[in-house]
Amino acid sequence: MKLAEKMQFICDKSNLTRGELKLLFDCQKQRIDDLFIPDRVLKLKKQEVDLLALKYKYNPQWLGNDAGDILLEDKDWQILRNQHAISTATKAVKGIGGLSDITQKKLQQIMCGIELNDSSIIESALSSIPDYLMVPKYDIAASAGNGSVINDEAIVDHLAFKREWIKSLGLEAQHIALIDVRGDSMTPTISNGDLILLDTRKGQHLCEGIYAIHLNDGLLVKRIRIKLSGLVEVISDNAQYDTETLTQDKLASLVIIGRVVWHGRRV
């Protein structure tokens, strides 16, 4: 099968558009167009082969020279993912000078876990470093303005916090999360771009404090205040934004994602 035919087959089988292929390869549009012109390009680049293999399980041998099955078996695909993660982590760690051999190995293991999105690998690497806890950072932006819809809840990173400090806040390791904040309605308390740590335990007694909430189809960071009448006020620390009062009817649509217990920002 010629390369142009092969690329069309891949797009049809994996339901890929040329635009999505361009994003995957991180290349110019002309490169993608050339791949679909017969005899214009004879071979895929190694990086392109790796991306198609890792993302869609295409057999690198088939991509390169039509050898073997079109798709990898699950066990072979997992081996390929592991090899890629180890290679990526090794290259990254080598670029950091001044690390001991033990630290290099632990860091490499942690980066492998992040690359594979496997928390068990990360926890294993940190098992001999009990002072620190790796807290997951989620791909969710909470708006401190007029609201931001949750689109993706994938873990995109981990940050290390002292276990003793986490415990001093009365938090449980399995019920904490980090997310970014967008908007200015909570300034000066919380600013646009701040990172916030949430206590995500369910069934918490709602009291006055700052929370990440789901309301009106958006994820918000707001101050919550309970009035003696039982009404709930959703408050912005920025005086330019109005306070919203929730009646009992509206209260049913309020979902508490987590209580904000810490925030960090760049200086």
Describe the structure.
The protein has 267 residues and is an alpha+beta fold. The chain folds into three domains: 3-72, 434 Repressor (Amino-terminal Domain) (Orthogonal Bundle); 87-129, no CATH class; 133-264, Umud Fragment, subunit A (Ribbon), CATH 2.10.109. 37% of the residues lie in helices and 24% in strands. The protein has helices spanning 3-13, 18-25, 29-35, 46-56, 60-65, 74-94, 101-116, 119-126, 163-168, 248-251; strands at residues 132-143, 155-162, 176-182, 195-199, 209-215, 218-226, 232-235, 244-246, 255-264. It has a nine-stranded mixed beta sheet with strand order 2-1-3-4-9-5-6-7-8. α2 (18-25) packs across α3 (29-35), α6 crosses α7 (101-116) and α7 (101-116) packs antiparallel against α8. The radius of gyration is 24 Å and the shape is globular.
Provide a short characterization of the protein structure.
The chain is an alpha+beta fold and 267 residues long. The chain has helices spanning 3-13, 18-25, 29-35, 46-56, 60-65, 74-94, 101-116, 119-126, 163-168, 248-251; strands at 132-143, 155-162, 176-182, 195-199, 209-215, 218-226, 232-235, 244-246, 255-264.
Under the CATH scheme, the architecture of the largest domain is Ribbon
Helix content: 25-40%
CATH-wise, what's the superfamily of the largest domain? Umud Fragment, subunit A
Summing up helix and strand content along with how strands pair, one would put the structural category as: alpha+beta
